[in-house]
Amino acid sequence: MFYKKKGITSFIFALAFVLVLILFDQFTKDLAVSFLMNKDDFILIPGVLQFHYLENTGAAFSLLEGQQVLFAIITPILLLFIIYLLFRMPRVKKYTALNYVLLFLIAGAIGNYIDRIINHYVVDFIYFSLIDFPVFNVADCYVTVSVIILFFLVLFYYKDEDFEEIKQNLRIKR
Fold first, then answer.
1. Of 30, 40, 132, 140, which residue is the catalytic one?
2. What is a single Pfam family found in this protein's UniProt entry (predicted)?
3. Exactly one of 25, 40, 41, 124 is catalytic; which is it?
4. pTM, whole model, 2 decimals?
């Protein structure tokens, strides 16, 4: 359990967890480059789901296309904030889900940041043709699902006093 880990053990666990997620994301993108680039789509479920290679120079769903400098600046700032929040989070069981949400957000951001820095684009390859949904990748899944879970946690799970406890922990102690 994440909430039971203290100090260096917690840090090592979080680092290993994020590293595994990033490696899986990068592995799937390497597979997409190897097996999908310059090839016809690979149909998994006809009319529903397919693998389609795409080089995305924007953010989620090709928003802000071509703004690589902006992403190069904003991503590390957001990552530092999320990491700070993660390690200032109270280490009690009720925040376990929030800790995992933050770890998945970190992994998703780093996974796509690696692509942006190395390739100047993000490799996307998962396409839901049934609803003509934008092409995405595993890191996008990490971020999207994390944000959805965060939304539900904030609306239905955590109470005002939980947020006060988090705010108290975020304050810099002198």
1. 140
2. Peptidase_A8
3. 124
4. 0.88
